[in-house]
Amino acid sequence: MQKSTSGNGQYESLSEDMYKSYYEYSGKNDTIETIWSNAFGSNYPAGLNHFGFLTNTDLAMFMSLINAKRGDVLLDIGCGRGGPGLKIAEQKKLKLVGIDIVPEAIHEANLLKENFDLSYTAKFEVGGFGNIPMPDDSVDTVISIDAFWMVKNKEEALNEIKRVAKNGAQFLFTTWDILSDESSLMARQGFKVLSMLETENWKTYQMKVYDAILKHKDQLLKEMGRAANILISEAETVPPILEVTVRRFYHISVNK
């Protein structure tokens, strides 16, 4: 599971400081790329430098469902290094704004964007679900990958998305639900759930990643120092939670 925009109970040990170290060092480490690419096989989205569990299947779903027009504004919340948002913006010819709470991730995203053939601007800055640095009614499409699940105040986050999104805008995201779904919450906040699907083979991919992290624990610590702690901590603590969760892809419409 990826980082959150706020702490939450048993995951408080996965601190922002640990993520800062990760984004400082892991981009220089081939072991991480090998672990993820081996776990995902042909479903691995190469070249995106992405820390999370996005697959090519997920990415294709984002591409097929986003109906934005050329030059529309795409907002990626919890963007990390920005790879998935950049790929979508490149293919769909959109203006991109990516936000993340970790400044080191924003720095990496601004470097990575040079690898993409963008038709419009791509801007990355510090922000999160509860604090989106954009004007009211300025966003055509909102995406988020593997971040919404740990937002403590989801009502506040949805209200903030509703503030910056235009009426009829799309909100597409992946998240883990605790043996339930968020559709009733979405409805109460004025969103319409267009589809809600369990992502393909999510648990298999995730466990392969965690098993490989623990197998190569000593190597990661040697190569990355404390930056490896976030990976090891997640691999050790999250697997039991997967038995009572489901990873889903949500396609939502914003109604004002």
Automatic annotation (TrEMBL):
Domain Methyltransferase: from-to ranges: 69-187
InterPro entries: Erg6_SMT_methyltransf, Methyltranfer_dom, SAM-dependent_MTases_sf
PANTHER family (UniProt xref): GERANYL DIPHOSPHATE 2-C-METHYLTRANSFERASE, ZGC:194242
Protein name per UniProt: Methyltransferase domain-containing protein
Source species: Niastella populi
